[in-house]
Write a structure and sequence with these properties.
The structure is a homodimer of 224-residue chains.
Chain A lengths: L2 E6 L17 E2 L2 E2 H12 L4 E6 L4 H10 L7 E4 L4 H9 L7 E6 L7 H14 L1 E7 L3 E6 L2 E5 L4 E11 H7 L11 H7 L6 E3 L10 H12 L4
Parallel strand pairs in A: 1-4, 1-6, 4-5, 7-11
Antiparallel strand pairs in A: 2-3, 6-10, 7-10, 8-9
Helix pairs in contact in A: 5-6
Chain lengths: 224, 224
């Protein structure tokens, strides 16, 4: 089946205390977003990549591509007011059946194994969501009461979140809900069962200055 | 109120693929455990520190103390077969009322602010548990069905977990249960309400080779 990837790079630099959007900050001397896109280019030449960027960042994107001589053959489209709208804009560019991986632009440590497993499981089951077990204890919080929970009964969710195109396009017709923090929750709303694949603790989302320090260290030891 | 700290260092090097126990692995050229202990020494000279170590690691501990000229004025006691038993052994050395912080030996990035806030809240409320919000989406897993959960209704739990001595000593009379993954869950079993204090994303528990890479990067930028 044809493979697609939607790379969602909607972030600002606010939580990063940075004037430049977090996806454009460099690790190992290259913008984070370039690393993320490169993982998919390295995975397969035949993959069709759609980058979703805020409209006001397109000029900067073009400038960076020139500066770093990065000229991937990908489609670029404008982001919306929320992650939900941005993914929806990306999906609008896909008109054939296939498998689509939705990936956070600031999650550059996805591996070939994770991509393989999520595309394969999605081909079989309709969807596959990268997830990891909890290392720390967890408590639920409700009305100021906290309660210890069995951590083996929870998974932390990452990207890629990979889907049969027709399923996820249909799911994104659902009205937006603030509880949609990822694509799996959008698909779930349509009644589909969600399937988890093994992510990796290294596959972090870079959102804070500490994450940037961590990412700079991880990339020196990263095995794709 | 008198302040105590129990530092629990029961780990082996198994998940670390290391021949030496993880708490003895060096970051910034000093064993992780020394960093953790130093945070409490720096916090207050008057704090009474109890280190709980597996019996078979005491010789190595003494050797490392000599090698690094580290001679803190602390009590050292033997660990038990589980974290529960180890903390219980540590508590057995405390015979006066006060406040006790239980701290993972491999969590060296605790800050003065976290220590301040947990000791203070525990003085007021009886307990205070360092916790952080989730950055990732979370799903619950039960009988192979996964369900999206509202991540704002959960907290990831860290140490220090700080208590009034009498409360936590009484709680540790409870029979051990595999669901006790931390001290808060032991106290909760006695019917006490649990109170959370703000931890920090940097306050990681070092358990895997990736954590070691991350810790080595964090420590160069660490602000106590």
């Amino acid at each position: 089946m044809k493979k697609y990837a939607i790379i969602v790079a909607g972030g600002s630099g606010s939580r990063m205390n940075s004037a430049i959007p977090k996806q454009f900050i460099c690790i190992d001397n290259k913008p984070i977003l370039f690393h993320t896109i490169q993982r998919f280019l390295d995975y397969s030449e035949k993959i069709e990549i759609i980058l979703v960027l805020p409209k006001e960042q397109i000029t900067e994107w073009d400038k960076l591509c020139n500066q770093f001589s990065f000229s991937p053959s990908i489609k670029v489209t404008h982001g919306g007011a929320s992650r939900f709208q941005s993914v929806k804009n990306g999906l609008a560019l896909i008109n054939e059946e296939g498998l689509v991986a939705v990936q956070d632009g600031v999650r550059p440590f996805v591996t070939r194994t994770i991509l393989d497993q999520t595309y394969q499981l999605a081909a079989e089951k309709g969807n596959a969501i990268a997830a990891i077990s909890l290392k720390d204890s967890i408590r639920s919080v409700s009305d100021n009461i906290t309660k210890s929970e069995d951590r083996t009964k929870f998974k932390l969710i990452q990207t890629p979140q990979t889907f049969k195109v027709s399923l996820i396009k249909k799911a994104y017709l659902t009205p937006e809900d603030p509880l949609f923090t990822d694509d799996a929750s959008v698909l779930e709303r349509t009644g589909e069962k969600i399937f988890l694949a093994e992510g990796s603790p290294q596959n972090i989302k870079i959102t804070t200055p500490e994450d940037l320090i961590i990412a700079e260290a991880l990339i020196k030891n990263f095995v794709y």
